[in-house]
């Protein structure tokens, strides 16, 4: 895929309902950082989040503004492990990162998760021509069979998906299953709309276990990566312009 800005999505979780929403986007390009709120669309975006209790970050109070900085914004930089830690190199190694990694690389790998709030950074869906890639941590892990089989999972193991249109929480829910059929959880809702359409249209894709972190918090234990191709029967722009305005990064 072609060179593009390094983008991460900012996710907020409603701690009462456990639902997650894509509320903002952080970009790094040509040495500059920008942050803006995700105002396009409704499903799992800023507007639905605000209808369900979200209030803008105190450091970024104006939802109509694009914030810029020559360094990573302080509220986000504080989410990174301290480089002065004596075990910092071991931390990078555990994350699968090299010493040449950037702050955005670390933010992507850790999610920037803090115990004091319910924000998290995730990778976007990338689409170039008819090819797409995305990766995600399995959602709903604590409620299903993941912990019972995590010791049996291996990097590059194939995983299976199934549609769950009768799900009371999300009519475009997609179940994640191990190659042996154990239910691990779901594709996060801010991605599921895209994958629901991809599967409905019988597009080609491959999904595998990308990373396993047995000691991590429940929703950061297993990362899945997907590569796929949108077939000739799908009009990508029509999918993106549906009534829920699915958002991906077009290259």
UniProtKB/TrEMBL annotation:
Q: Does the keyword Calcium apply?
A: no
Q: Which SMART domains match?
A: HIRAN
The record's GO molecular-function terms, alphabetically, read:
hydrolase activity, acting on acid anhydrides, in phosphorus-containing anhydrides; nucleic acid binding; zinc ion binding
For this protein, the record's InterPro entries field holds: HIRAN (IPR014905)
Alphabetically ordered keywords of this record: Hydrolase, Metal-binding
Q: In what residue span(s) does the HIRAN domain sit?
A: 131-230
In Swiss-Prot or TrEMBL terms, this protein is called HIRAN domain-containing protein
Q: Which organism is it from?
A: Halalkalibacter oceani
